[in-house]
Amino acid sequence: MKRTGSEPLLSCSFCFKSEEAVHKLISSPNNGSPSFICDECVFACNRILAGQPPKPDLRHRFANAVSRLFASHTMISRSAQ
Predict the structure, then answer these.
(1) pTM given for the model
(2) Is 29 helix (H, G, I), strand (E, B) or coil?
(3) Residue at 32 is within a domain
(4) 51 and 61 in contact (C-beta within 8 Å)?
(5) What's the number of domains the chain is made of?
(6) Span 16-29, pLDDT tens digits
(7) What would the pLDDT profile of 26-63 be if each residue is shown by its tens digit?
(8) Where in the sequence is the domain holding 51, given as residue range(s)?
(9) Any idea of the CA torsion for 26, 29, 35, 37, to the nearest 10 degrees?
(10) What's the angle, vertex CA 66, arms to CA 10 and CA 44, rounded to 5?
(11) Burial class of residue 35 (count of CB atoms within 10 Å of its CB; 0-12, 13-18, 19+)
């Protein structure tokens, strides 16, 4: 997607790489507070689901990002009640 300069730069909600640093960035269907996941994190998720560990360089960053994402989701869910 071409940027005009006025839109904020998007980033992966898991590894925090910008949309310019990844090949693909996928948006969640939630329009109120969208989350994004990049192709590298999807690859890591697929490896985890297949019973294989993610690449060593992503393992630590991915685990920390997942923890932060779940914590922020819990806070958002509680404030919506």
Answers:
(1) 0.60
(2) coil
(3) yes
(4) no
(5) 1
(6) 999 999 999 999 88
(7) 998 877 788 999 999 898 888 888 888 766 665 556 66
(8) 25-80
(9) -20
(10) 80
(11) middle
